[in-house]
Amino acid sequence: MEINHHLYNKLIEITSKENVLANEELRNHTYTKLGGNADFYVTPENYKEVQDIVKLANSENTTFTLLGNGSNLIVKDGGIRGIVLNLQKLNEIKTEENVVVAQSGARIIDVSRHALKEELTGLEFACGIPGSVGGALYMNAGAYGGEIKDVLTSAVVVTKEGELHTVAADELDLTYRKSNIPDNGYIVLEAEFSLKNGKYDEIKAIMDDLTYKRESKQPLEYPSCGSVFKRPPGYFAGKLIQDSHLQGKQIGGAQVSRKHAGFIVNVDNATASEYIELIHFVQHTVKDKFGVALEREVRIIGEDK
C-alpha cells in the first residue's frame, strides 16, 4: 500500500520516527493474532502527543482508530485505514492513600496487582482481565461479580476535538459491558479508582482463587478475543452454546473452544473472516434452537479484504 508521506512526516513531527510505523501488520498487536495492516500505527508517549494526533487527523480529514491492547477485538483482514493509535506507552500507575490512578495503556491486571501491593481492596475481580485500563473503561469490564463502575471515580479523556477533559464516572453511563465513551468519541488517558484498605494476605487469597478459576476453565493456550458474547438475561452464553452441541465446531482455523464454549479460539492460523463467520454461525444456531439472541461482547473493526 502506498504511504501518505505528507501524513507520515506530520506524525513524526508530533512524536518520533520510532513511534510511527507505516503499513504495520495488526495481527502482531491483537490477542486473536488476526488482522490486516494499518496505514499508520502510532504509539504516542504523552497526553499532548495524543491531543496533537487527534487534531492532525481532524485537520487532514483522516480517520483514526484506538486499538487498546487488542484483547477484546477482532480486526478484519483488510486492516484499518488512516491512523491507528495504541496507548501502551502511557502505562504509569500511582497511589495516593486509597486512590489508584492508572494511565490507559496500563494493563488492568497490573493495576489489580499494584493495588494488592498497596494493600488496597476492590480490584481483585480484574486480576484475570487481559485488557488495558482504557479498554476496561470502554466496555465497563467485569468478572466474578465485580466491574469497573464499582470502583471508578473519574477519568481523564481527550475529546474528538482534541481537548483534555476530566469526567466523573457517573457521566460515562457505565452499564453491563457498555459505556458512552465510543458515542462521545472519547479517548481515555487515565482512570482514578477509589479502593478500600485491606490485608495483603486476604486480597491475595481472593486473587489466587480467581486466577485458578480462570486458568482451569478458560482456553488460555490458544489466541482468542476472550469471552465473545454478552450474558443474555436469564441465561449463560457458554451454556447455550454448549447445549447447542457447538463445542469443537470449526470454520477454517477458528474453533468454538472445547474447554469453554463462550470462547472462540484461533487453533490454526485463522483469518478474521473465518472467525466472524463462526460467530455468526453460533448466533444463528443458538437463536434457532433456543430463541435467544446472543449479542457480541467483542468489537469487530476494520475493512474486509
UniProtKB/TrEMBL annotation:
Cell compartments where the protein resides? Cytoplasm
Record has Oxidoreductase as a keyword: yes
Lineage: superkingdom = Bacteria
Q: Which Pfam families match?
A: FAD_binding_4, MurB_C
Keyword Cell wall biogenesis/degradation (UniProt): yes
Q: Which reaction does it catalyse?
A: UDP-N-acetyl-alpha-D-muramate + NADP(+) = UDP-N-acetyl-3-O-(1-carboxyvinyl)-alpha-D-glucosamine + NADPH + H(+)
E.C. numbers: 1.3.1.98
**InterPro entries tied to this protein:** FAD-bd_PCMH, FAD-bd_PCMH-like_sf, FAD-bd_PCMH_sub1, FAD-bd_PCMH_sub2, MurB, MurB_C, MurB_C_sf, Oxid_FAD_bind_N
Enumerate the Gene3D superfamilies for this protein.
Answer: 3.30.465.10, UDP-N-acetylenolpyruvoylglucosamine reductase, C-terminal domain (3.90.78.10), Uridine Diphospho-n-acetylenolpyruvylglucosamine Reductase, domain 2 (3.30.43.10)
Family matches, as NCBIfam families: murB, PRK13905.1
The UniProt function text for this chain reads: Cell wall formation.
HAMAP family for the chain: MurB (MF_00037)
Stated family: Belongs to the MurB family.
Name of the protein this chain belongs to: UDP-N-acetylenolpyruvoylglucosamine reductase
